[in-house]
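Practice problem: predict the structure.
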Amino acid sequence: MNTMEKIVEEVQTLPETDAREVLDFVGYLKAKRAQTRVAITDMSEFDQFGAVFDGKFNRDECYDRKVLR
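Answer:
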């Protein structure tokens, strides 16, 4: 018995109100997954800056810039 069959079997034994809660939870999970996908795809606009910032930050170099002298 796979997971889907187990879920169906369990939900069929629930009262209607509890089954609606399960359905609401499924909707929540789908919305959460869709939101995560959107957040990941939105990061693509920052890819152009990948070559500028290497992930290392030196605070001393930050404050020792010509424009700040």
